[in-house]
Amino acid sequence: MSAAEALALGKSRSAPKAVPAGVPAAAPAPADTTTTTTDTKSTPTSSINIVILGGNFAGLGVLHTLARHTIPALQHLSSQTTSSSTQYQITLITPNTQFLFVPASPRALIQPDLLPGGEAKVFRPLSDAVKQYGDLVKLKQAYAYAVDRTNRRVHIRHVNSHWSGDGMLVPPEAASTVSYDVLVIATGTKARSALWSMPGPGSEALKGAEEATRREWESIRNKLRNLQSGAHEHHDVLIAGGGPVGVETAGEVASWLKAEGKTEGVKITLHSGADKLLKRNCGEGLGRKAEEYLRRQFGGLVEVVHGGVKIVSVSESGPEAGDGEGETTVQLSDGSTRTVALYIDATGGQGNADAFLPKTWLDGSNRVVTKDAFFRVRGSSESDPEAGGIYAAGDVVSGSDNTLIETNFQVPVVCSSIGADLASQILGPDSQKNGVKLPAPLKQKTFKNKLAGTLLIPIGPGGGVGQILGWGVPSFLVKVAKAKTFMVDMAEPAVTGQQWK
Ligand SMILES: Cc1cc2nc3c(=O)[nH]c(=O)nc-3n(C[C@H](O)[C@H](O)[C@H](O)COP(=O)(O)OP(=O)(O)OC[C@H]3O[C@@H](n4cnc5c(N)ncnc54)[C@H](O)[C@@H]3O)c2cc1C
Fold first, then answer.
1. Burial code of 450-471, b = ≥16 C-beta within 10 A, e = fewer?
2. How far is the CA of 169 from the centre of ligand 1 (A)?
């Protein structure tokens, strides 16, 4: 099994389990209300509003699975067991207009032309995900900045100007509220720079949150081109972060400079921030192999620095920060200062839920704490009624290993929790006794990351290091499975929903 195939596997198959009811009985749902525009629509009283926050891997996975499997199964169940019907509405709230295939970012950032289809393969329009579902799915280009758990409303701020359904121009920064019966938090991780993740709050002045990422990429490329052409006074590159992103990025920068014939007098320093590379991701061996691989491929061009030295502050100066001619001064925790032509922060990030959930709902890294293994959100305590009907998916889940692999295993479980909770609401308190056969999408699935211990790290296009299920794999396998294309072919099915068919 190739890693690409393995990554594409996402459906957990497991025995049904007894279901705790998480969704409160459907109440007359208040309409969306807009405080500064007329972005309002009334919803039928028997509707269930499902709101998804975050439109990338986890959010789209949940959207497609609900639209294709869970909601049709709920409608089938209702038709068999009750005389009334329920209308479902999914609202996807996200500040980006484009899906970003994050795993390919290190390649897309430095050498986009080496990707089949170029950078265009990495950004895909979100409209390709939602338009197929017609009125079932609404897309709101906005970010959540507060959740009113008592009244079950999400407060959102719009991004970019757009025309509302009522023909009114909604300016950026206009605020609205959206009511929910079910809320899915899939807002991912926020990195220190927009290089690796699209911003939520703060993106209102942009056309879409992805614009911030594109700008950062362009700025890095400008600086690198200046370094390569000799226009820059400094010749050093500093990369902070010894995890997979730092290692992959060092490999991309080094292989690009090598291909351009610009290695004389240039030094790429990779600060691991620890005592070895890949410390948080795998056992002893792989970090050592990565360091050896870097040395073998690039000799003195790449220097790996350990010892737990952290970046304290970064300042840009020069003609115009971002145009490639400026220089970056980095202050390190050992008291030293370095001025470099290019600085890349690959130090990871924090959960992206502190903007709209209380601290008591989050762990120390701002990820959302769940109360069970089925991704139901815990709230302030185990019995917090305000957390009813709220679920989390993807990197934002506390304890998640922050990989797409794990996200792909989470998505069917989150949707089965939603399906099971809504089914028990349809069937009522006697649902266990009355012998109704639940359709498969409404049976509780259990979570297991069947690919735990799988990690492939390209170090340039020619190969890299990796392990599958904890077993080391040779460089040529890393090349075939990931280093050649960075798996960009997986973007399309994630967007169109083919992955979740
Ligand atoms: C450089 C890099 C390389 C990686 N490579 C791999 C790999 O090879 N294999 C692997 O398995 N994993 C990899 N990962 C991890 C993988 O990318 C993540 O696990 C995946 O992106 C998680 O998806 P997500 O939907 O949870 O979060 P994200 O992809 O971060 O998406 C979060 C979404 O939430 C939106 N959002 C943010 N704030 C708000 C808000 N307030 N309101 C509404 N929406 C909001 C964002 O705009 C975005 O659409 C890599 C990560 C990085 C950074």
1. ebeebbbbbbbbbbbbbbbeee
2. 30
Where residue 28 falls among pLDDT bands split at 50, 70, 90? very low
Whether the CB of 454 sits within 6 Å of ligand 1: no
Cα–Cα dist 263/405, whole Å: 36
Ligand 1 centroid–CA 348 distance in Å is 11
CA 348, distance to chain mean position in Å, is: 12
> Hey, CA dihedral for 119, 220, 247, 469, is it positive or negative?
negative
Per-residue confidence (pLDDT) for residue 399, from 0 to 100: 95
* Rounded Cα gap, residues 423 and 391, in angstroms: 16
The helix-helix angle for 284-298 and 244-259 (nearest 10°) equals: 10
Residue 481 Cβ < 6 Å to ligand 1 = no
Task: Using the mean position of ligand 1's atoms as its centre, give its distance from the Cα of residue 313 in Å.
Answer: 25
pLDDT for 31 equals 41
What integer pLDDT is reported at residue 99 of this predicted model? 98
The CATH label, of 3.90.79.10, 3.40.605.10, 3.30.1490.20, 3.50.50.60, for the domain at 3-192+349-450+488-500 is 3.50.50.60
pLDDT at residue 196 greater than cutoff 80: yes
Decide: 419 in ligand 1 pocket, CB within 6 A.
Answer: no
